[in-house]
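Per your request, structure below.
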């Protein structure tokens, strides 16, 4: 990761400790996090709760609903959390997501942060799939990374407080298994769609005091490292892993959330329109 980004992040946390009172807003704030109850999204939700944000979380309908996680978050940080189960590609689900803000928070809270966490939205497209199935997969990914991203962005910016501003962050975890041999082209295409939406809206967002960035983290946490070191697949795959990942520092979910908090803070608001490759 760029050394200047690391220095800025360290400076951000020093400022927080020295002059924390200056960052306190009189208006309560809400953050929307998609895929926000597990994995990277879950850690981001914890970090935002620690900073005093109330949360609107979208839980992918194909994922187990982590009730204990949400209840601990409420209890430990006195956070008001609203959960919606559903698929981000559904227009009705996206409407319901923002309806929660309009109906529950609009009169008392600023909508400040939108986290489009796409970490688990890509799956391996097997060569055994039919042409029809492959086409349906590609349509789904276009909906996730382009159509849904545009709709989420537009819904967010019309609700923003122009004085206090806000932040939009796209996150796509580079799943090392999928990216290595199976679907490099698909991964790059999804990244291209995300960047395209960001470039379409970044100038509009600047005028509204919104910064818009994309984070692309690499390997995350000890479980991934354990799986890699114990992988027993074919030699070509193992060679790819050995050359590209075995000697790299392993990224944790805490690292991701720290970078994200800095970008979404008043100190990081000047960073916008960037695609930030982390630990690659």
């Amino acid at each position: 990761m760029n050394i200047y980004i690391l220095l800025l992040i360290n400076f951000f946390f020093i400022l927080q400790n020295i002059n924390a009172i200056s960052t306190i807003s009189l208006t309560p704030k809400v953050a929307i996090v998609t895929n926000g109850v597990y994995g990277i999204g879950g850690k981001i939700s914890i970090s935002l709760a620690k900073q005093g944000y109330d949360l609107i979380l979208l839980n992918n309908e194909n994922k187990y609903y982590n009730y204990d996680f949400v209840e601990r978050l409420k209890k430990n940080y006195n956070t008001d959390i609203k959960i919606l189960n559903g698929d981000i590609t559904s227009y009705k689900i996206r409407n319901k997501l923002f309806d929660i803000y309009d109906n529950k928070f609009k009169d008392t809270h600023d909508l400040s942060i939108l986290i489009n966490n796409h970490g688990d939205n890509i799956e391996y497209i097997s060569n055994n799939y039919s042409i029809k199935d492959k086409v349906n997969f590609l349509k789904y990914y276009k909906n996730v990374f382009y159509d849904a991203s545009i709709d989420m962005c537009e819904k967010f910016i019309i609700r923003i407080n122009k004085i206090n501003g806000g932040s939009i962050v796209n996150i796509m975890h580079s799943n090392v298994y999928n990216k290595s041999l199976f679907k490099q082209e698909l991964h790059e295409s999804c990244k291209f769609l995300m960047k395209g939406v960001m470039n379409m809206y970044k100038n509009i967002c600047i005028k509204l005091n919104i910064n818009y960035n994309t984070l692309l983290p690499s390997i995350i946490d000890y479980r991934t490292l354990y799986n890699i070191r114990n992988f027993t697949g074919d030699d070509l795959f193992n060679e790819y892993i050995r050359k590209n990942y075995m000697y790299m520092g392993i990224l944790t979910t805490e690292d991701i959330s720290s970078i994200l908090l800095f970008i979404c803070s008043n100190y990081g608001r000047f960073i916008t329109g960037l695609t930030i490759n982390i630990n690659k």
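The radius of gyration is 19 Å.

Regards,
D.
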